Amino acid sequence: MKKALITGYRGQDGAYLSRLLLEKGYEVYGTDVPGDAGVWRLRELGIEGKVKEVRLDLMDEPGIRSALEAVRPDEIYNFAAQSFVLTSFTHPVLTAEINAVGVARLLESVRKVVPEARFFQASTAELFGSVGNAQKNETTDFHPKSPYAVSKLYAHWITVNYRQAHKMYACNGILFNHESPLRGEQFVTRKIAAAVARISRGLQEKVAVGNLDALRDWGYAKEYVEGMWSMLQQPEPDDYILATGEVHSVREFISGAFSAAGIKLEWRGGGLSEKGVAASSGKTLVEISEEFYRPADVKELVGDAGKARRVLGWEARTKFEELTRIMIEAELARLDGKKVQL
């Protein structure tokens, strides 16, 4: 039986991947922050108590080695990170310690303890920053625009370095935005979906958002973890982009979310004064707030997953409109006390 170690296993990707690996017959070990944060994801997926939790802190290299010695995994998936772009502007040093130096500690520990293990690093489309508006592929230059993206760029290159210098099986998955009902509410799509569901039930008046015109390549996280697993099953390690190749705005996501909840939304005004109103009543349901603007935002990110299609046989199947519907239906199910379809 193969053994897998997943850091950050109670997050969106870690939870979906845990279920996938359990279904494939793996013995799955997981690490996460102390406490019960994210346990709700495991519960909704029906895998609570099925992952063996171990202690591993990316700030503690001796502790990392101890965990690896205890588990001796065949595959390692690293999702542990300070994952919020906006937070990285106020906590840049902590972001670097976890996302950059933490990955170096983890890779060095893997090299010393289980050098034969296969390693996956969750990289990000934020690495590309403002490099034009064309589809990004694995050869596109990086131009990070936030402390988060800079920290992830180090993690990306140190993974490449360990692959080349130490002949380790180490891969980067350059992941474009991927959403699901398991997203945390700090992320804009889940924040919007949860708010729209509550508004449709009369439990919330309106929602405040930032840049409506930010353009992103949004896929379904449930499908993306399949690509991550596939990366570690190839004869040779390499880096791959996972993306849909389609781009949509935050404005489109909001309109689609309200539509899925049975509310037609109209946009009025412009700039910070723009509002989304209910077409039937004119009531304001969406407002713009400078609080949610990033100091240096990336206008557009869209990826080319051609290499993943050719080599891994992977492609994004769920379209943007269907993803929006899935997220709204999940939020409504939660409000109604029903089982969430995941």
Distance between the termini: 26 Å
Number of H- or I-type helical stretches: 11
Top CATH class of the largest domain: Alpha Beta
Q: What is the fold named in CATH at topology level of the largest domain? A: Rossmann fold
Q: Provide the domain count.
A: 2
Write out the CATH superfamily name of the largest domain: NAD(P)-binding Rossmann-like Domain
General form: globular
Strand order of the largest sheet: 3-2-1-4-5-6-11
Estimated helix fraction = 25-40%
The CATH architecture category of the largest domain equals 3-Layer(aba) Sandwich
Kindly state the mean pLDDT as a whole number?
95
What class would the helix/strand composition place it in?
A: alpha/beta
How much strand? Answer: 15-25%
Task: Tell me the Rg in angstroms.
Answer: 20 Å
Low-confidence stretches at least 5 residues in length (pLDDT < 50)?
A: none
Largest pleated sheet? 7 strands, parallel
- How many beta-strand runs? 15
Question: Explain this structure to me?
Answer:
The protein is of the alpha/beta class and 342 residues long. It folds into 2 domains: 3-180 and 218-245 and 301-317, NAD(P)-binding Rossmann-like Domain (Rossmann fold), CATH 3.40.50.720; 188-214 and 249-298 and 326-335, UDP-galactose 4-epimerase, domain 1 (Alpha-Beta Complex). The chain is built from 11 helices and 15 strands. The strands form 4 sheets. Strands 3-2-1-4-5-6-11 form a 7-stranded parallel β-sheet, with helices on both faces. Helix 6 links the parallel strand 5 (118-124) and strand 6 (169-175). Helix 1 crosses helix 8 (221-231), helix 3 (61-71) crosses helix 5 (92-113) and helix 7 (188-200) packs parallel to helix 9. The longest helix has 22 residues, at 92-113.
